[in-house]
Amino acid sequence: MSTQPIPIPPARPGPMNFQSKGMRVNSARRAITNHVVSGLAILATVLVLAPLAAILFYLIYKGAGSLNLAFFTHVPAPVGETGGGMANSILGSGVILILASVMGIPIGIAAGVYLAEFGRGKMLANAVRFTADVLNGVPSIVMGIAIYSLVVMPQKHFSALAGGIVLAIMMIPTVTRTTEEMLSTVPHAIREAALGLGVPKWRTVLSVSLRTASPGIITGCMLAFARVAGETAPLLFTAFGNQFWSFKLNEPIAALPLQIFVYAISPYDEWHRLAWAGSLVLIVLIMVSVTLVRIYANRGVLKGGS
Amino acid sequence: MGVGILVENLNAWYGTNHILQDINLHIPANHATALIGPSGCGKSTFVRCLNRMHETNPVARATGVVKMGDLDIYNDASPVEIRRRVGMVFQRPNPFPTMSIYDNVASGLKLNGFRNRRILDETVERSLKQAALWDEVKDDLKKKSGASISGGQQQRMCIARALAVDPEVLLMDEPASALDPVSTSKIEDLIFQLKSQYTIVIVTHNMQQAARVAENTGFFLNGKMVEFDSTHKIFTNPRDKRTEDYITGRFG
């Protein structure tokens, strides 16, 4: 080891010299620019959050007063009677959404895995990707009519199953595209590490690629879920709605958005109040289920990992 | 124990790009063999052909014969089988970020369906000790992610991960090029100890490193192997003018 000190060159004149006057002026300007841009970013965040907060507070203001135990335990009261609740709609929405998730999420993820891991540059993959994007743009009422003629007509009656199918189809494009996007952010080096250990490709995809991408994929699934949870139009022709309890998948079933729709266009003040309460319950249920999934998904995260 | 590798007329392509041209080479068992040469000369492609990682790229292909002991790796076995017997350590540490240190090291066994807890525990401990990392991580094995330790530790963990599947050959593609000098010297010590049990092939940009760890050295240039000899001979008295120019720093 040499003990000679390393010579440090003297400060250079000109713009790279941090002591010069020009540099000080420059750095003041940079500090201002920094504050302005930070301020704009905070403003944008507030602008994005404001409508959400406003909607939530307005719903609480309008709807919270009509919430009581009966709302969660009773079916709707007939016209002219007071009271009643939306218990059957809450259950119905749950049933339809579980059906939709069970059908839509696996198919969506599988398609995304194909696009990202197996179909790179293939014609079929381009076709799948194009179809998913088009499907994402199809108006929900058109989806409803399509499933009406494909599922409801042959069965000759409305059903919870048809409602689940239409919402599943609406979930697939979002889930597929986010799965593909998230898998493509997984570094290739990690896949090579697994392949280099003699792990077969299918196992590498399942245990390494998907697992590494899972936080993003879960976010995508939750977005798709939250989006279809509030869908009304496609359910009009499929689940149809029901004033009573229904526990069968091949019968018409109630759903919160449908019930809100029915109540909101009615001429009765009592029903209007119930529609507000239903909206509040719908939004809270979506938030709760998304949060629960996130907590569940984060349970095994390690220190310093991703 | 390690096995020797015999390479005959190996050619490799990426698309229409002829990367390796007629490579013939015998890599002796239980020795470290270094491959040197300027960037883009085909050294990395060469080692990737030895465990059939080359063909994971859809536009890549290779012809020729590679024998590990008596096993013709391109005809007698599946790539998955070959990769279990030929371990690989990459240029940059590539831990699995979602897995603990323990799971990273055990991944080669676990992802192949191996579940015996006791043997997994033993293998993880043995491999981490072989990679000289055990003492530094033994308290956080299952608590910390494999991506949370330092770069040098990650690379030793990746070596432990490769050793855990009990390979016969260990390929190292510039294993220390992303590391600081202290970590580099630890990795070199490791190579020195491991070569009694494994056949080691190490690609390196650092000629001093080749001289320090390897008995034999091959010099690659533009997809061809210019010279292969004992490390001592290559660095003191090379036969080929191009080798001499490269090791004396006249190009590359």
From the alpha-carbon coordinates, what is the Rg of chain B to the nearest angstrom? 18 Å
- How many domains is the backbone of chain A divided into? 1
What is the distance, rounded to the nearest whole angstrom, between the alpha carbons of the first and last residues of chain B?
36 Å
Strand content of chain B: 25-35%
Write the CATH homologous superfamily of chain A: MetI-like
What class do helices, strands and sheet pairing of chain B give? alpha/beta
Helix content of chain B: 25-40%
pLDDT < 50 stretches of chain B: none
Largest sheet: number of strands, sense, barrel closure of chain A? none
SSE run of chain B = EEEHEEHEHHHHEHEHEEHH
Radius of gyration of chain A: 27 Å
Question: Which CATH architecture of chain A is right?
Answer: Orthogonal Bundle
Number of helices of chain A: 11
Biggest interface, chains and residue tallies: A-B, 26 and 37 residues
Give a description of the structure.
- The complex is a heterodimer of chains A (306) and B (252).
- Chain A has 306 residues and is mainly alpha-helical.
- Helix content of chain A is 71%, strand content 0%.
- Chain A is built from eleven helices and no strands.
- In chain A, helix 3 packs parallel to helix 6 (160-184), helix 3 packs antiparallel against helix 8 and helix 3 (87-118) packs across helix 10 (256-264).
- The longest helix of chain A has 43 residues, at 21-63.
- Chain A is extended and about 95 Å long.
- The two termini of chain A are 41 Å apart.
- The model of chain A has no long low-confidence stretch (mean pLDDT 90).
- Chain B is α/β, with parallel strands linked by helices.
- Chain B has a domain at 5-97 and 168-247: 3-Layer(aba) Sandwich (Rossmann fold), CATH 3.40.50.300.
- Helices cover 36% and strands 25% of the residues of chain B.
- Chain B has a six-stranded mixed beta sheet with strand order 6-7-8-3-9-10, sandwiched between helices.
- In chain B, a hairpin with a 2-residue loop joins strand 9 and strand 10 (224-230).
- In chain B, helix 6 runs parallel beside helix 7.
- The longest helix of chain B is centred in the middle third of the chain and has 14 residues, at 117-130.
- The two termini of chain B are 36 Å apart.
- The model of chain B has no long low-confidence stretch (mean pLDDT 92).
